[in-house]
Amino acid sequence: MQKLIINGKKTLRGVIKVSGSKNATLPILAASILNSESLLKNVPLVKDTFTMVELLKSIGLKCAFTKKNQLKIFNNERNIKTVAPYKLVKTMRAGVLVLGPLVSKYQRAKVSLPGGCAIGTRPVDLHLFALKKLGAKIKIKNGYIYATATKGLKGNTIKFPSISVGATENAILSAVCAKGKTIIYNCAIEPEINNLIEFLRKMGSKINLKKRTITIEGNIYNKKISHKIIPDRIELGTYLIAGALTGKNLIIKNIQTNIIRKEIEILKKIGVKMKISKNSIQVTSSENLKKFNISTEPYPGFPTDLQAQIMILMTQAKGRSTMKEKIFENRYMHVPELRRMGAKIKIKNNVAYIDGPTPLSGAEVMATDLRASVSLVLAGLIADNRTSVNRIYHLDRGYQDIEKKLKACKADIKRL
Ligand code: UD1
């Protein structure tokens, strides 16, 4: 099993280029089932992308990387199997996103239930709620969702009782092929959803997003389209935090600053030095970070996917900082490992209290999900001595070339 070995306390300087967004790529790959020929640019070369490509191939699509980050997907409508098997969905929950496209286009789908994962139970009831509203009949049997719509889906009004990124995406992906108009209320409005909407508009769908309401009228038709994936705002946030911890004029490029306004506002407030331009940010660490309080929220609030990473910054801020995790019920698995590195963190219910500044010391650590793993890498960058981060297959699900990017900026990091 591979691990990362980090000798900490090195100053990061140089340039890091952010890859395309994993969380935008996955729903867009699911959407490509609806189209005949799609060319995707800026595709991140991470494990989750490859798993989704495997899933599309098993459905019957042809997928080929034509250049390093460019992926062509063809649906020639031959040998389509409307099935997403357990072995693929269990490693990546986003596999459930093929449910909407399959049932709306082919009137039937059999998709494995994703089950729970390390950060919580993560049900799919809201995905199924949306599909039922559009007329799909749903049965759950032997760990699979069976969805049928023998006469096709029909537009309707969907009012989500709570906000879900995946359920909003599945609802959109179902409604674009439904007959008539669909209005979806209380939607997630993450930038990745906007990127998906842009892709579907290129296919001819009429989609309008206003506040948290999305209006969709069918009219999707097969086209040859080309689409660029937006930069990964979570990867960007992660490297910004790395720079805030131990950077000297670290430049982060290939980005869009308009999709991380909240994160920039917080970093500025606590004293991180940044020079911001449209497509890059230069960041330098500060010795005098102020304590701060954060709650994770749906976009445009602070993302749960950066909670573990910014907690490392909290260990270095002066005084008691607090973190309230409001999206997932069990997203503090990095905390026991951080405590082993010397961090002073207490948890009560869903709130973490972090006392700082605390020097961290290297240790052998591991985490059971993607973002928790990367937070341990950040901790290793500022810890004294050697940190060994085990089980890094989680990291490879979402961070392209992490050790190469950090090494190019003078981090002492290697993969074993
Ligand atoms: C997506 C992101 C993930 C991010 C999360 C929250 C992708 C591929 N993944 O995951 O990185 O952490 O958004 O920003 O884009 N819920 C239900 N019923 C449902 C669906 C969700 O109760 O049917 C709950 C979840 O358990 C969770 C909350 O809603 O508590 C938000 O989850 P959701 O936004 O759906 O997350 P994902 O789409 O799975």
Task: Report on this structure.
The protein is α/β, with parallel strands linked by helices. The chain has two domains: 202 residues, Alpha-beta prism (UDP-n-acetylglucosamine1-carboxyvinyl-transferase, Chain), CATH 3.65.10; 207 residues, UDP-n-acetylglucosamine1-carboxyvinyl-transferase, Chain (Alpha-beta prism). 31% of the residues lie in helices and 27% in strands. The chain contains 14 helices and 24 strands. The strands form six sheets. It has a four-stranded mixed beta sheet with strand order 22-23-1-24. β16 and β17 form a beta hairpin. α1 runs parallel beside α7. 50% of the residues are buried. The mean pLDDT is 95. The site of uridine-diphosphate-N-acetylglucosamine has 20 residues, from α1, α5 and α6.
Bound molecule kinds, no repeats = uridine-diphosphate-N-acetylglucosamine
Counting DSSP E segments of at least 2 residues, the number of strands comes to: 24
CATH H level of the largest domain: which superfamily?
A: Enolpyruvate transferase domain
Q: Which fold name corresponds to the CATH topology of the largest domain? A: UDP-n-acetylglucosamine1-carboxyvinyl-transferase, Chain
- The CATH first-level class of the largest domain comes to Alpha Beta
- Mean pLDDT equals 95
Query: Strand content of the residues, in percent?
Result: 25-35%
Rg, rounded, reads 21 Å
How many domains in all? 2
Shape: globular
Distance between the termini: 8 Å
Number of helices: 14
Estimated helix fraction? 25-40%
Which secondary-structure class do the elements indicate?
A: alpha/beta
Q: What does the main sheet amount to?
A: 4 strands, mixed
Strand order of the largest sheet: 22-23-1-24
Low-confidence stretches: none
CATH architectural name of the largest domain: Alpha-beta prism
